[in-house]
Design a protein that fits this description.
The chain contains 15 helices and 15 strands. It is α/β, with parallel strands linked by helices. The chain has two domains: 3-59 and 304-403, Aspartate Aminotransferase, domain 1, CATH 3.90.1150; 72-301, Aspartate Aminotransferase, domain 2, CATH 3.40.640. The strands form three sheets. It has a seven-stranded mixed β-sheet, with helices on both faces. Strands 1-2-3-13 form a four-stranded mixed β-sheet. Strands 11-12-15-14 form a four-stranded antiparallel β-sheet. Helix 9 (205-217) links the parallel strand 7 (186-191) and strand 8. Helix 3 runs antiparallel to helix 12 (288-301), helix 13 (304-328) runs parallel beside helix 15 and helix 14 packs across helix 15 (385-403). The longest helix has 25 residues, at 304-328. The radius of gyration is 21 Å and the shape is globular. One of its GO terms (molecular function) is identical protein binding.
Length: 404
């Protein structure tokens, strides 16, 4: 490699818009649940690219799918359809309540499509007054202006001028507040069936049930944002299946492509009728390359043994985190389901989630945070027991170094 081509972390500050603050290390290679940086240092990956790399790095089935499709056709636009998109759509509808699929490139785009669908349906069916969208505080639905406004964290949506209107934020898990507020003006409720960015907050079964019943009562639609919880992450193919509450619209992305950008909005045939030709679109959405890779991912993740394996791995994580906690008394609780887990810091450790992340990095472990007080784990769904053990040993060393 010539010197001019040498890429270092400092180049980021020169050429990138400063909306990220990436770690100093630059990863160059990944295999399974391990990653190597420019210096050849090895890391165990408990972050999975924020719940994306559900089969780890460079899974052979994904590599094969990409290689095969790359020799056939990459892009067509939606003037035509293509085989991988049709096969993937059929697989997704076979795995859940939905009859119809709209493909996009990301979770935000899948959510944008979902929000436009519910507004259009309400306008067509009930008239122009029915426009209110209810979402929840600390919720996260993406970074487009519509989705970030529906998300319940004002810090992400303030400061960009007038926001899309008629969006209400209520506390998550508060049935009373929801019952009191909701009316026939409400066109939809949008919620995560397990809040991710907001701190790995699960809904109570009563709350999930109440949301569904209130939607039915007020002729409102229920959107489940399963961008982070979907595609096997919680041990069900979609998290709603473990809650026993079925939405009308579901968004999925992140793990769907296992690292290749793809998102999808899933819904019923009745609702899909309202997205007529010309009402929405996406240049790259449903491209053959992305759909071929996602198809390989879905084939592996939907296997009963993969889904059962997620719950086995969850148990190993919980057990390991309990052992660390018995020594260092750092966590108040471990929340979440499957391999979407959040270790909430106790009072003595408040505000130090990022310290844990940085210390873990020094020990060769990649983890995430969800807010200031939660260390988040979203590893590969097929991570080996040895890699879990080794990663937890590294986490323990990181916490020991902070406890000193």
């Amino acid at each position: 490699m010539t010197v001019e081509n040498k890429v270092e972390r400092g180049l980021f500050d020169e050429v990138m818009v400063p909306c990220y603050n990436p770690m100093e290390m630059v990863p160059v290679k990944g295999e399974g649940a391990r990653v190597w940086d420019q210096q050849g240092k090895e890391y165990i990956d408990f972050a999975g690219g924020i719940a994306v790399s559900c089969l780890g790095h460079c899974h052979p089935d994904m590599v094969n799918a990409l290689n095969e499709q790359s020799q056939k056709i990459w892009h067509l636009s939606n003037v035509m359809t293509n085989e991988p998109a049709l096969r993937l759509a059929k697989k997704l509808t076979d795995l859940c309540f939905a009859d119809k699929v709209f493909f996009a490139n990301s979770g935000a785009e899948a959510n944008e499509a979902a929000l436009k669908l519910v507004r259009r349906y309400a306008a067509d069916k009930f008239g122009p007054e029915k426009t209110e969208i209810i979402a929840f505080k600390q919720g996260f639905h993406g970074r487009t202006f519509f989705t970030v406004t529906v998300g319940g964290q004002a810090a992400y949506s303030d400061g960009f001028g007038p926001k899309p209107g008629d969006i209400t934020h209520l506390p998550y898990n508060d049935i009373e507040a929801l019952t009191e507020h909701m009316s026939d003006r409400t066109c939809a409720i949008m919620m995560e069936p397990l809040q991710g960015e907001g701190g790995i907050i699960p809904p109570t079964p009563e709350f999930a049930q109440a949301v569904r019943e209130l939607c039915d009562k007020h002729n409102a639609l229920l959107i489940f944002d399963e961008v982070q919880t979907g595609n096997g992450r919680t041990g069900n193919f979609y998290a709603y299946q473990g809650l026993g509450v079925t939405p009308d619209v579901l968004s999925t992305a992140k793990s769907l492509g296992g690292g290749f950008p793809i998102g999808a909005m899933l819904t019923t045939a009745e609702l899909a009728e309202h997205m007529k030709v010309g009402t929405h679109g996406s240049t790259y959405g449903g491209n053959p390359l992305g759909c071929a890779v996602a198809e390989a991912v879905v084939d592996v993740v939907s296997k009963p043994e993969t889904l059962a394996g997620v719950l086995e791995r969850e148990a190993l994580f919980r057990e390991g985190l309990e052992k660390i906690n018995a020594k260092y008394n750092i966590f108040a609780e471990v929340r979440g389901k499957g391999l979407l887990l959040g270790a909430a810091l106790n009072e003595q450790w408040q505000g130090r989630a990022r310290d844990v992340l940085v210390a873990a990095g020094k020990e060769g472990l990649m983890v995430l945070v969800a807010g200031l007080n939660v260390v988040r784990f979203t590893p590969s769904l097929v991570i080996s027991k040895e890699e879990i053990d080794e990663g937890l040993a590294r986490l323990e060393r990181a916490i020991a170094s902070l406890a000193k």
